[in-house]
Amino acid sequence: MGNVGAKEIPVLLSPEGLRIDGRRLDELRPLTIQAGALHQADGSAFVEWGANKVLAAVYGPREVHPRHLQQNHKAVIQCRYNMAAFSVDERKRPGLDRRSQEISKVIGEAFESVVFAEEYPRTSIDIYIEVLQANAGTRCAGLVAASVALADAGIPMVDLLPAVAVGKVGGAIALDLKKEEDNFGEADLPMALVPQSGRLVLLQMEGHMTEAELAQALDLGVKGCREIYEKMKQALRERYAIGPMAGASS
Ligand code: ADP
Fold this sequence. Notes:
Layout: E1 2-4, E2 7-9, E3 31-35, E4 43-49, E5 52-62, E6 76-83, H1 98-112, E7 124-133, H2 138-152, E8 163-169, E9 172-175, H3 179-184, E10 187-194, E11 199-203, E12 206-207, H4 211-241
Parallel strand pairs: 6-7
Antiparallel strand pairs: 1-2, 3-4, 4-5, 5-7, 8-9, 8-10, 10-11, 10-12
The structure holds adenosine-5'-diphosphate (ADP).
């Protein structure tokens, strides 16, 4: 365990190749997805992923607000990602900061590549993502929740959009970073995949990797996305197997 000033850097990878929480390098954190978690929304989902807790609500297609954003040939997709003030250890300043704006933008753009927006001209599809508890990878958890919520709202899409962050910790490429790995690791690479085509519609990177490591990271991330994809489909099957109100009580 090394020391930098007063700050202790945890050992991120054991000699046996296990991570800080005992996971293997290619192992996801536990993930549960509940489709249809809210009553008011047209579609919704609640995702618990490791220590992340994220709620997504979808409204629309509905009238566009503000009006000037309306488009004559397609629906506009408006996304708002927000982290609750109580979602992190130190209280976060409430409201839309630059980070939230950036995440809202990249998630909205990812959905523009899969939603059949031309089918609903002059309307808005509104996606709200609320992070209730954050432990790294919240934009990916938000994408997964919003994607299931869009499907729950009956919005036609090419495919669901599984997402995961891959990174470099203790010199090795690892799937689905948790907070300590994100903070003290060497790189963080969130991505979202269209499973049908294998196309990535979100890819960001913080930190450094070699070209060979990047190729390995992309490969690992795609495998992780495919695992998550199965859980997303299962959540929707569970929601609709028992009847239209399954999962919600009135
Ligand atoms: P992501 O959540 O998609 O990994 P970041 O890499 O920006 O996005 O953030 C990593 C983690 O850092 C978050 O999941 C959260 O746990 C923490 N974090 C982000 N912003 C803040 C903040 N303003 N205050 C405290 N913790 C934060």
